[in-house]
UniProtKB/TrEMBL annotation, chain A:
Coiled coil region boundaries: none
Name of protein: Electron transfer flavoprotein subunit beta
SMART domains referenced in this protein's UniProt entry, alphabetically: ETF
GO molecular function: electron transfer activity
Membrane-spanning intervals of the chain: none
Family: Belongs to the ETF beta-subunit/FixA family.
Native source species: Nonomuraea glycinis
SUPFAM superfamilies named in the record: Adenine nucleotide alpha hydrolases-like (SSF52402)
Electron transfer flavoprotein alpha/beta-subunit N-terminal domain location: 23-212
Job description of the protein: The electron transfer flavoprotein serves as a specific electron acceptor for other dehydrogenases. It transfers the electrons to the main respiratory chain via ETF-ubiquinone oxidoreductase (ETF dehydrogenase).
Keyword Transport: yes
UniProtKB/TrEMBL annotation, chain B:
Domain of life per record: Bacteria
Keyword Transport: yes
Gene: fixB
Similarity remark: Belongs to the ETF alpha-subunit/FixB family.
Co-factor requirement: FAD
Binding site for FAD: 206, 231-232, 245-249, 262-269, 283
Organism of origin: Nonomuraea glycinis
Swiss-Prot/TrEMBL keywords: Electron transport, FAD, Flavoprotein, Transport
Biological function: The electron transfer flavoprotein serves as a specific electron acceptor for other dehydrogenases. It transfers the electrons to the main respiratory chain via ETF-ubiquinone oxidoreductase (ETF dehydrogenase).
Cofactor binding note: Binds 1 FAD per dimer.
Protein name listed in UniProt: Electron transfer flavoprotein subunit alpha
InterPro entries: DHS-like_NAD/FAD-binding_dom, ETF_a/b_N, ETF_a/FixB, ETF_alpha_N, ETF_asu_C, ETF_asu_C_CS, Rossmann-like_a/b/a_fold
């Protein structure tokens, strides 16, 4: 089975993330990049499926030069090779542009299964897996907390507000996985060493058959008009519990008409 | 005024509160038209949609619309966008709502904005990003604005619309019918409101100490008619089911009132609750960062404070 797992490098949540005042885009240079946490579950799921069914796991990422750190991490976990979609013309793409560029790359790579994390911890739109399924014309098996493949058929448990839906489809398909579907493995020392020798192919816009007019900040379907630091919340009242803490909170809730 | 499509969220034929919020919002920007996707519309549901301002109710009652994952709803909306040229399409910013919005955006070559906490003139949306640290205004510049709005972004207000029903028949493509729902499994969750939609959320964290002790959190939640949430420390420890996790990798909530008990308030947690209107914190550690956000805080042992609070709430009902 030919599995492509999509990963994204995101700013470390623990650092201070900023938008650039010139063009209202995320300043990726100013912060440490880490693998989007939810993508680690996607990598693990891809590796488990490969171990069970055979095949190959290809990592696909779109991002600046330093996103190679994220590729190496996924390769160290055990993926076989990687494709890095990297072109200045892609910078500032919104979800529509990103999904278009990634779909073009995926068509070129070829796949039986595409696996993603359910969202990124920076933009948090959660729309990319659905957009990819739409663009690729393949079944959308998203928000999965269980994935089973049997020959060319695939079944997932899709998390819903009320529990889950059992969903069936035929490969090729796009899957997104939720946190806790598995326990992502830590790269071993051997894995880290081996990752250095694994092939990483860089694709520019032209290589992937991407129309440059459909990607990048200027082509974006939506724009940030302005932004500002959130005004600090007005300092609240902090009381010490002297045996009456619950009563004090109740008084506050009553004053605010919650009770 | 031009039409604004609102995709209806419903459970067993009952319209969810977030849809009433979206209709209220749509009324301030145009003429709301509700879109009912799937079978099972009731007279009560129609009355409710009209009561909150739906001028038209498009009903696409085919079973197939809910028999496959997301894509049929996006095709339905895309056909309505082509036929009615609405000024915008609003959906609830639930996990599925955002997926519908994403596919619709691709289909109609339109921009999409997710997790809006406000929507103003010219469909300029307000979003809260980076764990609540930055407020952003954004707008769609290509196609029909598609906006996924967070529950509790606005207070629902009744104002009757005509509620004229129009049946819609949809032709679904083969690819929209490729991920088939073969079984729906409903998990028991009792009478508590849904976490992302609840007006009040009571969350417990590391300070709760054990799975058994979560009954203290549940007791307060039930006294207030609230949903129960948990920090990642609590769900990772196995004290509370993972689907109730509030935070960066869990659910994002934006309730009227958020009570954090035994939660320190790390950035990852704040990312999931910082847009709550009123925040109350109970924590033993006076230095806990959650107190920086709190409108009211008590430094003390939650095992004393929370049961006392639940008793007080029950007494004052």
């Amino acid at each position: 089975m030919n599995i492509v797992v999509c990963v994204k490098q995101v700013p470390d949540t623990a650092t201070e993330r900023k938008l650039r005042s010139e063009d209202n885009t995320l300043d990726r240079d100013a912060v440490d990049g880490v693998v989007n946490e939810l993508d680690e579950y996607a990598v693990e799921e891809a590796l488990k499926l490969k171990e069970a069914h055979g095949g190959e796991v290809t990592v696909l990422t779109m991002g600046p030069g330093k996103a190679t750190e994220t590729i190496r991490k996924a390769l160290a976990m055990g993926a076989d090779k990687a494709v890095h979609l990297f072109d200045d013309g892609l910078r500032g793409s919104d979800a529509l542009g990103t999904s278009y560029a990634m779909a073009q790359a995926l068509k070129q790579i070829g796949f039986d299964l595409v696996i993603l994390g359910s969202e990124s911890t920076d933009a948090r739109t959660g729309v990319l897996p659905a957009m990819l399924a739409e663009r690729l014309g393949t079944p959308q098996l998203t928000l999965a907390n269980k994935v089973d493949v049997d020959g060319s058929s695939i079944t997932v448990q899709r998390l819903t507000d009320y529990g889950y839906d059992k969903v069936e489809a035929t490969l090729p398909a796009v899957v997104s996985v939720v946190e806790k579907i598995n326990e992502p493995r830590y790269p071993s020392f051997k894995g880290i060493m081996a990752a250095k020798k694994k092939p990483v192919q860089t694709l520019a816009i032209a290589d992937a058959g991407i129309d440059a007019a459909q990607v990048g900040l200027d082509a974006s379907w939506s724009q940030v008009v302005d932004f500002a630091a959130a005004p600090p919340r007005a300092a609240g009242t902090i009381a010490k519990d002297e045996g009456d803490g619950g009563v004090k909170v109740a008084d506050f809730l009553a004053a605010k008409k919650f009770i | 005024m031009s039409e604004i499509l609102v995709l209806v969220e419903q459970v067993d034929g009952e319209v969810k509160k977030v849809t009433l919020e979206l209709l209220t919002l749509a009324r301030s920007l145009g003429t709301p038209a509700a879109v009912w996707a799937g079978p099972g519309i009731t007279a009560e549901a129609k009355a409710k949609l009209a009561e909150y301002g739906a001028d038209t109710i498009y009903v696409a009652g085919a079973e197939d619309i809910v028999g496959y994952v997301v894509a049929p709803k996006a095709e339905l909306l895309a056909q309505l966008v082509a036929a009615k040229s609405p000024a915008a399409v609003l959906v609830a910013a639930t996990a599925e709502g955002k997926e519908v919005a994403g596919r619709l955006a691709v289909k109609t070559d339109s921009g999409v904005i997710t997790d809006a906490v406000g929507l103003g003139e010219g469909f300029v949306a307000e979003q809260s990003i980076f764990g609540g640290g930055v407020n952003v205004h954004s707008k769609v510049s290509r196609g029909t604005p598609i906006v996924a709005v967070r529950p509790n972004s606005t207070a629902p207000e009744a104002s009757a619309g005509a509620g004229t029903e129009e049946e819609v028949s949809v032709t679904l493509s083969d690819s929209a019918k490729s991920a088939r729902v073969v079984e729906r499994v409903k998990q028991e969750k009792g009478a508590r409101p849904e976490l992302t939609e609840a007006a009040i959320v009571v969350s417990g964290g590391r300070g709760v100490g054990s799975a058994e002790n979560f009954s203290v959190i549940e007791g307060l939640a039930d006294a207030l008619g609230a949903a129960v949430g948990a920090s990642r420390a609590a769900t990772d420890a196995g004290w509370y089911p993972h689907q109730f996790q509030v935070g960066q990798t869990g659910k994002t909530v934006s309730p009227q009132l958020y009570i954090a008990a035994g939660i320190s308030g790390a950035i990852q947690h704040r990312a999931g609750m910082q847009t709550a209107k009123t925040i109350v914190a109970i924590n033993k550690d006076p230095e806990a960062p959650i107190f920086e956000l709190a409108d009211y805080g008590v430094v003390g042992d939650l095992h004393q404070v929370v049961p006392q609070l639940a008793d007080e709430v029950n007494k004052r009902k």
